[in-house]
């Protein structure tokens, strides 16, 4: 099982300063760091060293970061955190829809990146098939389709349950609106159907959150989607 201490991380970024900063900072937190300056080298190293996590810049000099992500996803579910420009919301959505686990916007703080790395590694370690998911006060029994909060049964509609299951099964990851619509409502939907999503997220928050306006389980990623938060 992957643990955060000593995890092998591959950094794919063409900026020497960024690679050096990440290497020094992450090694100080006892990660085993490997680096690549091009997309082709990154794909090659990923296939050779089998990292526990990849930090991937989308703007690379040879092939795009999206192409690197697509190639890696052909054979591996390695957690991938992409680095994106702050104003490129479309890039974030495209990367998440293509299999990225999370994103950090440039310029970024090391504290935020470290937190994202820890969450991605924890999710990867927990991603084995588990019939019961436990998140602090919340328990989800996938086999029985039972949800309990503080030991009390929570009554959910089939759609509410399916939505919660998709989010909780990928706890810590950002799930885009498109992904949620496809997984919960199937292929017969349009992007304009996102208002259904907001309505059902609102229903879930009313049933699960002490204060729906300050959620601790389901976090909104504005303009992109939602993230089910891992509970300490």
From TrEMBL:
Modified residues (4-aspartylphosphate): 57
Domain OmpR/PhoB-type: 130-230
Entry keyword Transmembrane: no
Record Pfam families: Response_reg (PF00072), Trans_reg_C (PF00486)
Keywords for this protein: DNA-binding, Phosphoprotein, Transcription, Transcription regulation, Two-component regulatory system
Positions of the Response regulatory domain: 8-121
Family matches, as Gene3D superfamilies: 3.40.50.2300, 6.10.250.690, Winged helix-like DNA-binding domain superfamily/Winged helix DNA-binding domain
Xref: InterPro entries: CheY-like_superfamily, OmpR/PhoB-type_DNA-bd, Sig_transdc_resp-reg_receiver, WalR-like, WH-like_DNA-bd_sf
Residues of the DNA-binding region: 130-230
PANTHER family tied to this protein: KDP OPERON TRANSCRIPTIONAL REGULATORY PROTEIN KDPE, REGULATOR OF RPOS
Name of the protein: Response regulator
Biological source species: Paenibacillus lignilyticus
């Amino acid at each position: 099982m992957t643990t955060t201490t000593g995890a092998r991380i591959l950094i794919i970024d063409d900026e020497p300063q960024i690679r050096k900063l990440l290497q020094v900072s992450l090694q100080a937190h006892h990660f085993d760091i490997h680096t690549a300056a091009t997309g082709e080298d990154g794909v090659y190293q990923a296939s050779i060293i089998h990292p526990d996590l990849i930090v991937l810049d989308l703007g690379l000099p040879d092939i795009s970061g999206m192409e690197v992500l697509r190639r890696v996803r052909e054979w591996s579910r390695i957690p991938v955190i992409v680095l994106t420009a702050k104003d490129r919301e479309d890039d974030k959505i495209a990367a998440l829809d293509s299999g990225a686990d999370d994103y950090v916007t440039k310029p970024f703080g090391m504290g935020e990146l470290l937190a994202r790395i820890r969450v991605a590694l924890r999710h990867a370690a927990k991603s084995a098939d588990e019939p019961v998911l436990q998140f602090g006060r919340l328990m989800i029994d996938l086999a029985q389709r039972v949800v309990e909060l503080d030991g009390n049964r929570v009554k959910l509609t089939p759609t509410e349950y399916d939505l919660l299951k998709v989010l909780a099964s990928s706890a810590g990851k950002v799930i885009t609106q498109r992904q949620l619509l496809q997984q919960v409502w199937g292929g017969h939907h349009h992007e304009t159907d996102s208002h259904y999503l907001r309505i059902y997220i609102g229903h879930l928050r009313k049933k699960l959150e002490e204060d729906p306006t300050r959620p601790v389980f389901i976090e909104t990623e504005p303009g992109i989607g939602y993230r089910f938060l891992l509970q300490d």
